[in-house]
Design brief:
Layout lengths: L2 H13 L2 H8 L3 H15 L4 E4 L2 E4 L1 H29 L4 E6 L5 H14 L4 E6 L5 H6 L5 E7 L8 E5 L2 E5 L13 H5 L3 E8 L2 E4 L7 E4 L2 H9 L5 E4 H9 L4 E2 L9 E7 L5 H15 L3
Parallel strand pairs: 3-4, 3-5, 8-10
Antiparallel strand pairs: 1-2, 5-13, 6-13, 7-11, 7-12, 8-9
Helix pairs in contact: 1-2, 1-3, 1-4, 2-3, 5-10
Keywords: DNA-binding, Transcription, Transcription regulation
Family: Belongs to the LysR transcriptional regulatory family.
Protein name: DNA-binding transcriptional regulator, LysR family
């Protein structure tokens, strides 16, 4: 029993005759007939009742038809898995990332990857970038994306693009009413900042004050600021819509802030799917500067 014989059986069944199947598939009627005959010989049963030009499935033909569909699906998957392997496409890809870039972008890029590489199993784990290097080192993930300060970057991290940062507060926050904010102004109010694990303790990236609220995700920080909890320094791509919709205000200031870069840390080598992901991230960053 061969896959092309099973396909011929299905084609004839779906189109009702050898002639109709030949017209729709572009395969000669004699070739389809020979394939079905060979399948019947190998199975030792008649799949069709033939009467002139009329065809009807036999009882056994009807009973095996669903399994024939399954067999072709399995054969197709086996072929695709082997083709992916020959092309260097990963069977599995594990990703770590932070949420400095909008979730709408990540949803779309994951959708696109699964459409393009449907047989690659993809896992995504969210955690602060300060923890990325250890996850790659332990081979828990294959590649990690995150926002770093120039001083805080892992030695193994590669630059993708600089990211503009915005000092923001809610429209009703007292800082939003000042024409220009200073370090002393910021120190009077709660900073909502990123918190991450460092060894056996939690470390918070507070800038000018010990008065802070540390959270592990940029989106949670943004939402807390929108709620009026405090002020924050956040990546512009993440707050762009909130600034446009006036749910956040950009604070005017003359402060010298650290440069931030979106970087990635990779494992031993990048496969086809990881490279496609890297290309998508790079392209998106080029549109948000």
């Amino acid at each position: 029993m061969r896959a092309e014989q099973v396909q011929a059986f299905i084609d004839v069944t779906e189109h009702g005759s050898f002639a109709a199947a030949a017209r729709h598939t572009g395969i000669k009627r004699s070739t389809l007939s020979a394939a079905v005959n060979a399948l019947e010989d190998s199975l030792g049963v008649a799949l069709f009742e033939r009467s002139g030009n009329s065809l009807q499935l036999t009882a056994v033909g009807e009973s095996v038809l669903p399994d024939c569909y399954r067999l072709l699906t399995s054969a197709s998957r086996i072929n695709k898995h082997c083709q992916q392997h020959l092309q260097g496409v990963e069977s599995q890809l594990c990703i770590a990332r932070d949420d400095a870039l909008p979730e709408a972008f990540w949803r779309q890029v994951m959708h696109d990857l699964k459409q393009r590489y449907p047989l690659t199993a993809i896992s995504v784990y969210l955690l602060p970038p300060q923890e990325h290097a250890q996850f790659v080192l332990r081979q828990t993930v294959d590649i990690a994306f995150g926002l770093y300060t120039a001083e805080g970057a892992s030695v193994n991290a590669s630059n993708l693009a600089p990211v503009s940062m915005s000092l923001v507060a809610a429209p009703g926050h007292p800082l939003s009413r000042l024409p220009n904010v200073t370090k002393d102004d910021l120190a009077q109010y709660t900073q909502v900042c990123l918190t991450f694990d460092q060894g056996d303790k939690l470390v918070s990236e507070a800038l000018f004050s010990t008065n802070y609220l540390g959270l592990t995700m940029f989106e949670v920080i943004r939402d807390a600021v929108i709620n009026g909890t405090g002020w924050a320094l956040l990546p512009y791509p993440l707050v762009k819509d909130a600034l446009t919709n006036h749910t956040l205000c950009a604070l005017n200031h003359d402060l010298l802030l650290e440069s931030h870069y979106y970087r990635y840390v990779e494992g031993e080598s990048l496969g086809v799917v990881a490279t496609a992901l890297l290309t998508n991230v790079t392209r998106f960053l080029g549109t948000t500067r």
